[in-house]
């Protein structure tokens, strides 16, 4: 396998982009990424997206977006793994470059979720869960996470208020990210007083519905050298996917993200590191409970102590394992099929010292993890600055 | 790049599988493919599918199906390129094995289209076209193909009846395929008298809405040797994708499948062959007009003479370039996201001498071509028997 480098990044501000169509939003991330990489062509475009069919009436995004950004003719397709679609597309791009099939691949994640009527977006998101055994019973995706959160609070005797540190950290970091949807700091008091959505998940436990796109340009070592933009080189040191059952009731232990453990173990092994070597971790905090479970399943906290890590301040920029360093899903926003690519764009910013006031000191190894469903597809990447 | 072999195949009968859910249909192709390959595990599962979100309310098919067929934990994701989704998933599997990332990959295509109410399937299929500039104007996917067919008839002065040879050939071949949806032979008279759908496309010009799944197991050379089932070895000698604009009005020439030409030229070059070396061609005859355009853009007929090839009997099993040898999309059926994998399963049957009364004599090189939309994504594979 050949080394794979990220030679360009692009992203749109996350928010409600009613004036931009799906293809425009993708364009607004891809063109900056291509400019950043100083490329005018690529061998392939892989698009991560979950809901374009349901919400926009448009499938076939690979060819559509390739054409719209001026790359008509090239290999292009869409990759889908629910909310993990962005990293799934990255995984495909990584495989194609690492395996020597392509030299330059653009990976874009895009989602347009806000320009809809009624509960269609909520119904769409439920497609990440098991349709026959979960969604068809009327349980929404938030409700599934609420069940997990309640179980966690019961099993480990954790009060709801303790989860507030995740939300406070995410909003604090989003305030330093010009691309974030909610760059407003909040306090633990804001968290406690937030409106309830699906008990015990309140508004501040939950990531928002939003629009956005992010893109990266992947390249082989010779191409990375040829198109070097002068910044620190960033290499993908590991890429791994693992799966679990979609339905939570089918898992051996609902509070253990088996696929996170499997994919991070593969990734640690591939990169030759342990969790202690990770300088920051862009995790999938779609809900605060997911942040806690992720810290545990990836080896950053003992079981039942993920929340404690947050309480103790270890997840902040200055902490032992900074998470959601640019706002995370909670406050940067969670345009579902784009999120996995946003995480990688932000990791590159950190590794290249471009994270501004959010800069993690001495950031050399960053980990990103994108989750599909309530843990059924989990995709881990480890990036290193060279 | 390493050589990639197909070591197992599986397929379901194409038809109306109301009693089987989406995951069951996929299961019914994957398990036979795994048995055929004599494998119990795989490194990854890539699923081709277009409409599961729209028609079944289920995305996230990678993890769902991996779990359901007993492969919980492995890398899995869905690949989508409209009606080209099946071959797009195969392309990803090919890349992963050729590049040395995986040794054994299962590629499955699945679609469940018939268990719906009203015009939802027609609306779903229109998602292969440009939503903003075609579908939103009310043009259905059949209507787009009707525009192409009418233009073809006008430009080349071809009567509608001449296209009947494609339908007659497809149904003749389907009669010898136990997996075909319509194994009933038809005559030119049946064709002429068929009900009109979207003038000039009649019922016999058009492939059916249906359910089905097909699967193949891909393997590296050492694994192909270890799991050799005694039949002739089949190698993927070429794999290529090309794209064009989704909207037909954006193309330089609506009657020229630029992406077919691009992808087949890449494939011929990769395999080191020319069209004259191809012993049979599983083309994407979603409509008879697509069969004609495909023969032309891939170098089997001069422009405007694709229909003539059919009239002259050159597309039959005994002809110069047999097409739709197991019934094609027209008569085997077109479960859209599965079709590209069905084509490859059938090509393996031909190359291994398992095509029964449909056997192409001395079949050593087969080409398959799967099309997304009205030609916006075109994926070509060349298979050789060794």
How would you summarize the topology of this molecule?
Two copies of one chain form a homodimer.
Chain A (H helix, E strand, L loop, with lengths): L3 E8 L10 H16 L6 E5 L3 H5 L4 H8 L6 E6 L4 H14 L5 E8 L8 H6 L15 H16 L7 H11 L13 H6 L2 E3 L2 E2 L9 E9 H6 L7 E10 L14 H14 L8 E3 L5 H10 L8 H6 L16 H4 L4 H16 L13 E8 L4 E9 L1
Parallel strand pairs in A: 2-3, 2-4, 9-10
Antiparallel strand pairs in A: 1-7, 1-8, 4-7, 5-6, 8-11, 10-11
What is the H/E string of chain A? EHEHHEHEHHHHEEEHEHEHHHHEE
Mean pLDDT of chain A: 97
Ranges of chain A where pLDDT stays below 50 over 5 or more residues in a row are none
Biggest sheet of chain A: strands, sense, closure?
9 strands, mixed
Label the structural class of chain A: alpha/beta
- β-strand percent of chain A reads 15-25%
CATH superfamily of the largest domain in chain A: Thiolase/Chalcone synthase
CATH class (first level) name of the largest domain in chain A: Alpha Beta
Number of strands of chain A: 11
Distance between the termini of chain A: 18 Å
Q: What is the second-level CATH architecture of the largest domain in chain A?
A: 3-Layer(aba) Sandwich
**What multimeric state do the chains show?**
homodimer
């Amino acid at each position: 396998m050949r080394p794979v480098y990220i030679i360009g990044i692009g992203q749109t501000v996350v928010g409600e982009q009613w004036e931009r169509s799906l293809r425009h939003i993708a364009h607004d991330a891809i063109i900056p990424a291509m400019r950043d990489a100083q490329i005018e062509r690529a061998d392939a475009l892989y698009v991560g997206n979950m809901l374009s069919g349901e919400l926009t009436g448009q499938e076939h995004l690979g060819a559509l977006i390739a054409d719209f950004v001026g790359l008509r003719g090239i290999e292009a397709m869409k990759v889908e793994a629910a909310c993990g679609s962005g990293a799934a597309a990255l995984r495909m791009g990584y495989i194609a470059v690492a395996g020597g099939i392509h030299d330059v691949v653009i990976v874009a994640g895009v989602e347009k979720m806000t320009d809809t009527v009624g509960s269609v977006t909520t119904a769409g998101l439920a497609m990440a869960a098991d349709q026959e055994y979960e969604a068809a019973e009327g349980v929404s995706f938030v409700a599934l996470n609420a069940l997990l959160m309640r179980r966690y609070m019961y099993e480990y005797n954790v009060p709801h208020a303790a989860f507030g540190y995740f939300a406070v950290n995410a909003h604090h970091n989003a305030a330093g990210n010009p691309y974030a949807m909610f760059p407003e700091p909040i306090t633990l008091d804001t968290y406690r007083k937030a409106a309830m959505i699906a008990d015990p998940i309140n508004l501040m436990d939950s990531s928002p519905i939003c629009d956005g796109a992010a893109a990266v340009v992947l390249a082989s070592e010779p191409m990375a050298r040829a198109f070097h933009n002068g910044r620190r080189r960033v290499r993908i040191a590991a890429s791994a996917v693992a799966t679990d059952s979609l339905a939570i009731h089918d898992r051996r232990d609902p509070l253990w993200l088996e696929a996170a453990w499997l994919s991070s173990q593969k990734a640690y092994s591939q990169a030759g590191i342990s969790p202690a070597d990770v300088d920051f971790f862009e995790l999938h905090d779609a809900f605060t409970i997911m942040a806690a479970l992720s810290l545990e399943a990836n080896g950053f906290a003992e079981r039942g102590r993920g929340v404690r890590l947050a309480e103790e301040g270890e997840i902040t920029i200055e902490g032992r394992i900074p998470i959601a360093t640019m706002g995370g899903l909670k406050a940067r926003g969670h345009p579902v099929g784009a999120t996995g690519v946003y995480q990688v764009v932000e990791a590159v910013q950190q590794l290249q010292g471009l994270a501004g006031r959010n800069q993690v000191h001495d950031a050399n190894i960053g980990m990103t993890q994108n989750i599909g469903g309530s843990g059924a597809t989990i995709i881990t990447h480890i990036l290193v600055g060279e």
